[in-house]
């Protein structure tokens, strides 16, 4: 009670104070991961900053500017803006099937050419904010009630269904993982999760029927790569050969024959981890994974130190996003899960995923900077 | 549960749910963090499995035997004319490539290679630039079209020259290339949009047909790609082929064109800067020749392409890439009088007996329309066609009105594009009141009807349309593919009228008079074959008007020369049209060409020979061969 309502009106932070409060070691860690990615892109291009590494540097700089802008912004704006942002992202996602641009059999983009963007990327951020916003004002004693589950389940379910219709299985799964993880963090009872898992097991055969042929094909070739050694199985097989042949210490920087000889598909985007571990070996791959794990640990502890539920959940949710990306990508290229087309965050070449991740980390730092801030309902007022 | 207990036992103090939630968050966040670490451990275990435990297996796979899958571009179907002569086929293209990353020194490698294959300075620069610009692991093309001797030598030397690669792809070879250029078209790399649709298009050896027949029948000619599996060594060299699924070659295509006639027609056009001629089979609508000058050699633009030569062709003054026979739109001039005469007879505003006086000028209100000469009195419809009297047709057009004239012109096939496998046809214009309102948003004026009567003003048409008009017997649409001659059902969109055969006969006799009677405008172009008469109509269409007069060069001010004809006059079998841009008078420039081409057509009598039957191309799905009835 005291913690929630008896605080001084607001902890006013000026920029100088915010600069001091920022988690600089964490930022250095992120930069280190990005630098690994740039080195990898330099190598993929056959020892050239063109065409990928140089643009990745620019994107990182742009992402960094966004990260700072968000980290130093007032957390109250985001608490207020969480629902409108979510609804906007939802509306844009709903627009995609109507006016979206089709590419490679999927309709995921709005706009044209360089100016195109994926509303599902925006949704990844907006979903975290919206769920955090929901649990911020949900009276803690009501968390266990079944009717309190309905809004967050809708918040997860509607975007996930929209993503499935695009069709984008990977993003839909990501929404589900992030959403469920945040509900768990917020304190929803274990029993619901047990029930949900049981429900998924029952529903799985039906979901299988709803999958597109190419998605079924991906899952089937995952279980048996030899099924289609020229198609998607070829990717997994070549990726495994590349990683395996890297051995303990790797083939050396810019000497990954599998990647350099074009055996690898999408080696600068989704399969960059493959190329990296071929050239840097087990040691390099484990070091990169350790960097990610360290970053995740940083995020967890930043979340623990936040005072408000909103900030805790924003940091925790973004951490889950980062984790889900890294895990799915690495598991995918090592042949543990089917190829679903998820990039390695901060490392894979691509403007969209880099910006999404930097914005997400911006929110983590925003939560951290505002860790002592608490909110009063009167201060925000109204539905929004 | 703890909550309910607290409530149940009626604790005095309300439990601090917020604090509990905060603690629960901490517990669960640590739990999630632990799970994340555990799952990362799983990844680490997986990496250990791949990179430590099974590393030697994978290294073996990577170093010794590597699987490489390549798509194999299918060979494109060949194109033949009606006699079976090859017009386009795929030829083997032996190529030399280098992988710069494997060369010890690129200049040195090129020096060694130049002892076998001449490498120009320009090529050398291009290869070096490519090696710098892209990853050294992308092959760079050094030379193509190698001889077998060079190819064999290179393959023998390959183990000693690292980075050397050879391959066998295909290129397109065109025969009778210059005369056939506009008809057959040419192939090229697929456009960017197409690449997105079908990844096969990225294959270096894969070509789509952007122009001409190569485009119209592209899907049939293209075939489907196969795959090839190789084992390659760590330097990217092929160790052995592991088997392949063959590509399916594209289907062959037989055209209705007769290449002898086509070549002859092209040859005959040479003396003019821009000209075109079309010859049709009157009975079936088959296009026997369709020549346009200036032309180009498609072999120059598909194989060993010199960018400068390509630019020269693409930007040449008279645009050799344009097919004038279907894309040139000209005022039909006096050739249109055939239509006006027929329309006038059909409308009943003139008859065979009525005569008019031609004082050399025609007055409509205050406007004056000139005739090319004062023909004097006694001009009936026969004389008017024969001597090409403008005044007679001014009056005829004025009497019946533009809509009537336009309907008959459309009946004869003008003002439309034909579904005959010729892409890029222009439509031409057959104006009427509704057309002018829709396109210019202006009412129709009487003076415009008068000049439309002699094929000037808004009226325009392509040489192909003129030939179709000269054929005079719809509805068989023209076509250029031999098997299409089976199509006898009338085109539903072709607006047909019920014309009186007697009227047609009157006009036909006029056209015979043009060529064969004293005083006819094309008297000098009568056929020299005994007992065979040609019927025709000259046209000289004016280009200059008050608005553009001062802008044009002397060449551009010159009138277009036109001639339409059919033969034999008593039993029409061939119809032809010729347009010489800025060629002067129709009787002087266009009629002699048609006379020669028509003579050739009649002597060869291509329409009566059986059409070549293409052999099935091995896949069983070969094309349906159609033999035209000898008649």
From TrEMBL, chain A:
GO cellular component: a single term: cell division site
Superkingdom assignment: Bacteria
Record-linked Pfam families: FTSW_RODA_SPOVE
Spans traversing the lipid bilayer: 26-45, 57-75, 81-101, 149-165, 172-204, 280-301, 313-340, 346-367
Localization per Swiss-Prot or TrEMBL: Cell inner membrane; Membrane
Gene: mrdB
Single GO MF descriptor: peptidoglycan glycosyltransferase activity
Enzyme type, top EC level: transferase
Membrane topology classification: Multi-pass membrane protein
Keywords, comma-separated and alphabetical: Cell inner membrane, Cell membrane, Cell shape, Cell wall biogenesis/degradation, Glycosyltransferase, Membrane, Peptidoglycan synthesis, Transferase, Transmembrane, Transmembrane helix
Natural source organism: Methyloceanibacter methanicus
GO biological process, alphabetically ordered: cell division; cell wall organization; peptidoglycan biosynthetic process; regulation of cell shape
Associated pathway: Cell wall biogenesis; peptidoglycan biosynthesis
Reactions listed under catalytic activity: [GlcNAc-(1->4)-Mur2Ac(oyl-L-Ala-gamma-D-Glu-L-Lys-D-Ala-D-Ala)](n)-di-trans,octa-cis-undecaprenyl diphosphate + beta-D-GlcNAc-(1->4)-Mur2Ac(oyl-L-Ala-gamma-D-Glu-L-Lys-D-Ala-D-Ala)-di-trans,octa-cis-undecaprenyl diphosphate = [GlcNAc-(1->4)-Mur2Ac(oyl-L-Ala-gamma-D-Glu-L-Lys-D-Ala-D-Ala)](n+1)-di-trans,octa-cis-undecaprenyl diphosphate + di-trans,octa-cis-undecaprenyl diphosphate + H(+)
UniProt-recorded name of the protein: Peptidoglycan glycosyltransferase MrdB
Keyword set includes Transmembrane helix: yes
Biological role: Peptidoglycan polymerase that is essential for cell wall elongation.
EC number of the protein: 2.4.99.28
Similarity comment: family membership: Belongs to the SEDS family. MrdB/RodA subfamily.
Chief location: membrane
Glycosyltransferase is among the record's keywords: yes
Automatic annotation (TrEMBL), chain B:
Catalytic reaction equation(s): a beta-lactam + H2O = a substituted beta-amino acid
Pfam families documented for this protein: PBP_dimer, Transpeptidase
EC number: 3.5.2.6
Domain spans labelled Penicillin-binding protein dimerisation: 73-242
One GO CC term on file: plasma membrane
Primary location recorded for the protein, binned into one broad class: membrane
Protein's membrane topology: Single-pass membrane protein
Single Gene Ontology BP annotation: antibiotic catabolic process
Keywords: Antibiotic resistance, Carboxypeptidase, Cell inner membrane, Cell membrane, Cell shape, Cell wall biogenesis/degradation, Hydrolase, Membrane, Peptidoglycan synthesis, Protease, Signal, Transmembrane, Transmembrane helix
GO terms of molecular function: beta-lactamase activity; penicillin binding; peptidoglycan L,D-transpeptidase activity; serine-type D-Ala-D-Ala carboxypeptidase activity
Cell location: Cell membrane; Membrane
Annotated transmembrane regions: none
Signal sequence segment: none
Active-site positions on this chain: 334
Primary enzyme class: hydrolase
Residues found modified as N6-carboxylysine: 337
Domain Penicillin-binding protein transpeptidase span(s) in chain numbering: 276-598
Sequence similarity: Belongs to the class-D beta-lactamase family.
Protein name per its UniProtKB record: Beta-lactamase
Source species of the chain: Methyloceanibacter methanicus
